[in-house]
Write a structure and sequence with these properties.
Length: 249
């Protein structure tokens, strides 16, 4: 947490303390949450803190409207595509790899909703160019979700063939998103790491942001279905490792 302290009530340490100092400098009249702002909301073991609804938070709630539209479109696209495949009259050849890729796109999209909650207190998120950057990330996520499954069974009833034909496009979008995500994380946490280096913070950046980029690149270049299965399982584990302890409150 940006505000979390040691259990005994001592001063902040490691990543939490370093990022908390950054939050204190960057945020006015607001309390900040999250261990690393991206992919973080609040940990269930952290005591609830009273957060005032400041004008800055209300401004971000206004900005959140367009973000929610893109996230909703991405989720709806995956759901509609799966519904057409399941209820269509044409023959469908199901493929677990294609379904796993669609599920991964869906999880990334939902994860971004948690990320937006985690950075709502930062004044930088209300700047015009950062807003455009976030819109671009969400647009890539929408394309990613749209590419994961065919729009109609008639387009490609064979999901294995669909995945083989769209593999490079799909993983190119994943790579673009993950690289942009890494840059966002460095934007928030980089100054803290530079001033107060922490092995814990560096390891979290490596696991949550760098490794997904490397895996996306490997899957983009590889045609091995076995490697793609392994890569997707690892990506799901990384998502679960990061998101499972957190909640919106």
């Amino acid at each position: 947490m940006l505000e979390s302290r040691a259990a005994a009530g001592g001063p902040p340490c490691g990543l939490d303390g370093a990022v908390a100092q950054l939050g204190e400098r960057r945020v006015r009249n607001a309390k900040v949450e999250g261990s690393i702002p991206f992919r973080s909301t609040s940990h269930p073991l952290t005591p609830p803190a009273k957060v005032l609804v400041t004008p800055e938070i209300r401004a971000f709630e206004y900005a959140l409207g367009l973000f929610s539209v893109l996230i909703g479109l991405a989720v709806a696209d995956v759901a509609n595509s799966f519904h057409r495949l399941a209820r269509g009259t044409g023959p469908v050849v199901w493929d677990p790899l294609a379904l796993l890729s669609a599920l991964y796109a869906l999880c990334l999209t939902v994860g971004m909703w948690f990320d937006l909650w985690g950075v709502r207190h930062f004044a930088e998120t209300r700047h015009f160019f950062f807003y455009l950057w976030m819109l671009a990330d969400l647009f890539v996520l929408f394309l990613l979700a749209a590419a994961s499954l065919p729009d109609t069974p008639g387009e490609s009833g064979d999901l294995r063939e669909h995945y083989a034909r769209g593999r490079r496009y799909f993983w190119t979008l994943v790579l673009i998103f993950q690289v942009s995500y890494l840059l966002n994380g460095l934007y928030f946490v980089g100054p803290v790491l530079w001033q107060h280096f922490s092995y814990r913070a560096a390891s979290m950046l490596l696991v949550n942001m760098v490794l997904p980029c490397l895996l996306a690149l490997v899957l983009l270049l590889s045609r091995s279905r076995r490697l793609h299965y392994i890569g997707l399982v690892v990506l799901f584990v990384l998502l679960a490792f990061h998101y499972a302890p957190y909640k919106i409150n």
